[in-house]
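Before surveying the methods themselves, we first show a specimen of the format, giving the amino acid sequence and backbone structure tokens:

:::
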Amino acid sequence: MPMAADETPGTALISRRRVLAGGALLAAVPARAMAATSGLNPALLQQARAAFERHADRIANRQIIAIADYGLHSAQPRFFLFAPDSGAITSLRVAHGRGSDPAHTGYLQHFSARPGSAASSDGAYLAGVPYVGQHGRSRRLIGLDPQNSTAEARAIVIHGAWYCEPGIVQQTGKLGRSEGCFAFSAGDAALVLDRLPAGCLLYSGRA
């Protein structure tokens, strides 16, 4: 099925401030959060915690942490909005890049940050500014790690897409693929855009 193109590259300007005791924010929650993780892999949560500590001085907003578990099939809810203060977790479906799954199996085969790869990249991202583009409401992302440092140049963003609607999963057993963006159904994209504001951490990986 044809896939929508990513947005025009742009530089997201985010105000930054130092976050004190970043690791403690996540470390205080897991015992009670793990009881209701809704499928969130504890090993991936550990990776996200390490990323939080590594980039604490860049994370200006700590109310929500997003974690994309690309070890799961695209038909499964694998994008988690985690509220450290309460331990509450919301799980949603998210697409991966077609370059990460050339045979369209529904499973991500590999990550890449190479421009033109149309692949998903792993690592820590900072949620950037919102904008309205080809896919409607969207949010830019800033890659914080070497393996996703081309995110802005590649226009890797959060957006809604028709190929992520529930009907696609019902018909094909999997989501469609993006050009490397974090693509959601229209309803889920609105939820993510509302609940993951600028300055939050988004961690992408697989355990």
